[in-house]
Design brief:
The protein has one domain: 60s Ribosomal Protein L30, Chain: A, CATH 3.30.1330.40. With 156 residues, it is α+β, with helices and mostly antiparallel strands. A hairpin with a 2-residue loop joins β1 and β2. 40% of the residues are buried. It has a 5-stranded mixed β-sheet with strand order 1-2-7-5-6. Strands 3-4 form a two-stranded antiparallel ribbon. α2 crosses α4.
């Protein structure tokens, strides 16, 4: 068992099956040079979309953070698939972007994305610290409450 898989096991974290693309000609992950880019992932578990609605209406901050964590688990599942099962090829998490489906009255957008950010640090330790963008949006694909994408630096 590699180091990251051992860490996931130690944390009691299971990764979902990586979801297929929901649109034509979209790659779920792409390696470019020393970087792995993972397309935006919704909060789904083995193909079942969860957390459908808006934060500030159907969901509160804690629920949205849980949805962000689930989206980040899908990011890791896509990364694992792109790296032929070897998450140890990731040397660091470079960046995350989080898009939050929100009502105009909800202002804790950055905190909503913390579920995803916290997961990366749990799994990768200090190498999980990353740059981040958190945006509140009026609409999301499939009305999901959050979407997370990521960029990783790979071993040479």
């Amino acid at each position: 068992m590699n180091k990251i898989d051992a860490r996931l096991s130690e944390l009691g974290i299971e990764l979902p099956s990586p979801p297929p693309p929901r649109a034509a000609r979209i790659l779920m992950a792409k390696i470019a040079g020393d970087f792995l880019f993972v397309s935006g992932q919704l909060p789904s578990w083995n193909g079942e979309l969860r957390y459908i609605g808006k934060v500030g209406k159907e969901f509160d901050l804690a629920q949205t953070q849980a949805a962000g964590r689930l989206s980040a688990l899908n990011v890791l599942a896509q990364a694992r698939a792109a790296l032929n099962g070897d998450l140890d090829r990731i040397t660091e998490v470079v960046g995350l972007r989080g898009y939050v489906n929100t009502t105009p009255e909800f202002f804790e957008i950055a905190q909503a994305v913390n579920g995803a950010s916290d997961l990366m640090v749990e799994v990768f330790g200090t190498a999980g610290a990353h740059t981040r963008t958190a945006l509140g949006v009026a609409m999301m694909p499939y009305n999901a409450v959050i979407e997370i994408d990521a960029q990783f630096l790979l071993k040479k």
